[in-house]
């Protein structure tokens, strides 16, 4: 496809060669692909691997060192409670939801060996640091997790949905004023995957400021 960069079904790169860390980093970025939770299975990361994945988040940019985000692990023995929160969230939105629809909502809680909720605090600390900066920091932390999971050979996905804003989910996770449930992150072994999608070429999203002429197309 013209103007786009094709992404093949890539495997995670091998250990970084000392002579070409930039090439290894580029290969890792290109290997990351969203694998939906329904396509992730056991085994998930072991304790040491999960520690490495979570530690990667700390290297995200964080204006003011607020640590405005946190991750909540949802272990297997808590999935039933999450399933009921999903069903209740559906009923909040649609009191006429059928039993079948509620069961479909519950089923989402049981996918992927590792499931995390990402929470961002829009009020904590310096009020001069805007919510958008805090969310951006959280997004960088999530990307660090996804890339580390990819480097370890796992598939991963970032997912959202209307349930994140529900009273049921806020109550289950004891979210405080100013806290927002941003997304879920799932990690596990890839059971199947779709072909990688074509990625946009830099010229499609990069421009150059030319005084008096505004932003012009970037010519690399």
From TrEMBL:
UniProt keyword terms in alphabetical order: Flavoprotein, FMN, NAD, NADP, Oxidoreductase
Cofactor needs: FMN
Enzyme Commission numbers on file: 1.-.-.-
Principal EC category: oxidoreductase
Cell membrane found in the keyword field: no
Cofactor, how bound (note): Binds 1 FMN per subunit.
Gene Ontology MF terms in the entry: oxidoreductase activity
InterPro entries, per the entry: NAD(P)H_nitroreductase, Nitroreductase, Nitroreductase-like, YdjA-like
Domain Nitroreductase: 43-188
Pfam families: Nitroreductase (PF00881)
Residues that coordinate or bind FMN: 32-34, 63, 158-160
PANTHER family listed in its UniProt record: NAD(P)H NITROREDUCTASE YDJA-RELATED (PTHR43821:SF1)
Family designation: Belongs to the nitroreductase family.
Listed name of the protein: Putative NAD(P)H nitroreductase
Source species of the chain: Alicycliphilus denitrificans
């Amino acid at each position: 496809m013209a103007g786009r960069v094709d992404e093949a079904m890539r495997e995670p790169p091998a250990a970084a060669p000392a002579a070409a860390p930039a090439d290894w980093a580029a290969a890792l970025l290109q290997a990351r692909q969203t694998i939906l939770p329904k396509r992730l299975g056991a085994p998930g990361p072991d304790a040491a691997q999960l520690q490495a994945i979570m530690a990667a988040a700390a290297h995200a940019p964080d204006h003011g060192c607020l640590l405005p985000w946190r991750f909540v692990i949802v272990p297997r023995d808590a999935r039933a409670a999450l399933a009921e929160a999903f069903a209740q969230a559906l009923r909040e939105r649609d009191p006429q939801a059928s039993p079948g629809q509620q069961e479909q909502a519950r089923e989402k809680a049981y996918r992927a060996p590792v499931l995390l909720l990402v929470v961002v605090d829009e009020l904590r600390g310096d009020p001069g640091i805007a919510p958008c900066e805090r969310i951006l920091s959280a997004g960088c932390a999530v990307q660090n997790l996804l890339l580390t999971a990819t480097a370890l050979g796992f598939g991963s996905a970032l997912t959202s949905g209307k349930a994140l804003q529900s009273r049921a989910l806020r109550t289950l996770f004891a979210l405080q004023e100013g806290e927002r449930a941003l997304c879920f992150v799932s990690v596990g072994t890839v059971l199947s995957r779709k072909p990688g999608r074509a990625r946009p070429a830099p010229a499609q999203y990069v421009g150059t400021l030319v005084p008096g002429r505004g932003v012009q197309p970037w010519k690399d």
